[in-house]
Amino acid sequence: MGIVAGLDSSLDSTRIVVCDTDTGAVIREGYAAHHTAPAPDGGKPTRADPQAWLLGFGEAAGGGLLEGVEAIGVSAQQQGVVPLDHHGNAVCPALVGNDPREQGAATDLVDALGGRFAWAQAVGCVPEAGRAVTKLRQLARTEPAAAERVAAVAQPHDWLTWQLLGRPGRRTTDRGDASGTGYWSAASGSWRPDLVELALGHQAGLPEVLAPAEAAGRTPEGLLISAGTGETMAAAFGLGISDGDAVVSLGASGSVSAIHHSALADPTGTITSFADATGRHLPVVRTQNAVRALRGAAELLGVDLPGLSELALRSTPGAHGLVLLPYLDGERTPELPHTAGTLAGLRRESMKPEHLARAAFEGMLCGLADALGVLRARGVQVRRVFLLGSAAGLPAVTRLAPALFGARVVVPEAADYTTLGAARQAAWALGVHDGRLGAYDPPVWSAAAGEVHDPGEDIPVGQAVHQQYAAVRDERHPGAFAATSGQTAT
């Protein structure tokens, strides 16, 4: 028995968990807030001093938290870039977050390479705001003098690992975090330096990509540091998802990801072809609208989300013919950036609060079922869905989701799965180093506990509801979903 630690450095805070190497049981935890200046417009910050991440680590690890720890894994925010000069110092504050002003740079990059298809073939994803390659383009556009000084680029997890190791000559990253940059291909497993040059205007040094169980090195104090990874990949590893599993995340917007054996080059750009933290792949499909549709309906009806859920369960499947296309902020799946939502099927008998509430839940879940359908159409097996997010435990969600997704649904108990994933990776690297584990055999930790909801005999009901939804979707936006997904909508 030994102990390892996992660290997650987000935009707002640093979290650390210390775990038993063999079981994954959490022994102790640490936390520290990051003191980041707000954006000038009052929104989320788009620049951050990376030294704050180191200070956050020191504060979170205070009080002997890491006493006895043999290895640590580092995960961090994926929408970030630290531009470094020839001395390894930051040229400017780290570029972080999803800055809407970067969309123009993303459009420039798409056009410069010859369109979305060219990018999807090259690196498995299409430039968008928040992507590392887009941030480099934005820096070159708006701060050319700073861009000229950039000699190397790192993502937050790369930079933190390098700092904790004492700034050695070798800088490293992993497949998962590299796959989110926009200049590394999950399909070929290689960097595309030409795309860095396309974005920045010149070449820049890139870190060595480590294998999943490989160690980045040891700190001056002797602590082994694993390869590390991005937050999405660490959370998937912490949940313990495997073949046949998908993760549906319910935030204001939504995302669907699943384990797959190969990279999926998607000419439409709907699928982002990430690599995972185990040597496999983690294709992701996003929707622009998820819980924001529920909140909008709740405000309209004068209730909170639990009240909306209670109302929805008073209705029946199909909401008496009422269908909500929840495209309130435009939509990504299907690709309809400038559209608006649609409420169809209004009749006297359907104009009741409970039917509108039901339509909101069914619309949100059908939109996510569309995203699942995109992955299934490409051969991704989905037999179990882990449902995460603020609305995941609402009774209307857990009651409707299994039939609409056509799969068993698990709502995991609250836990910091990102830090757990980082800790599990540390245990893997330590086990390989000690000869106890193989390079393809991660430690078997207890599966995420939670509520399990089976579709039972309701799958035909879910299919009928989704067909009603799809009919309205295709009538209102002919061909949009088929063009986005590369399949015939049903």
TrEMBL record:
SUPFAM superfamilies: Actin-like ATPase domain (SSF53067). InterPro entries: ATPase_NBD, Carb_kinase_FGGY, Carb_kinase_FGGY_CS, FGGY_C, FGGY_Carb_Kinase, FGGY_N. Coiled coil: none annotated. Keywords: Carbohydrate metabolism, Kinase, Transferase, Xylose metabolism. One of its GO terms (biological process) is D-xylose metabolic process. One of its GO terms (molecular function) is phosphotransferase activity, alcohol group as acceptor. Residues 290-430 form the Carbohydrate kinase FGGY C-terminal domain. Residues 5-229 form the Carbohydrate kinase FGGY N-terminal domain. Belongs to the FGGY kinase family. PANTHER family: SUGAR KINASE, XYLULOSE KINASE. This is Sugar kinase.
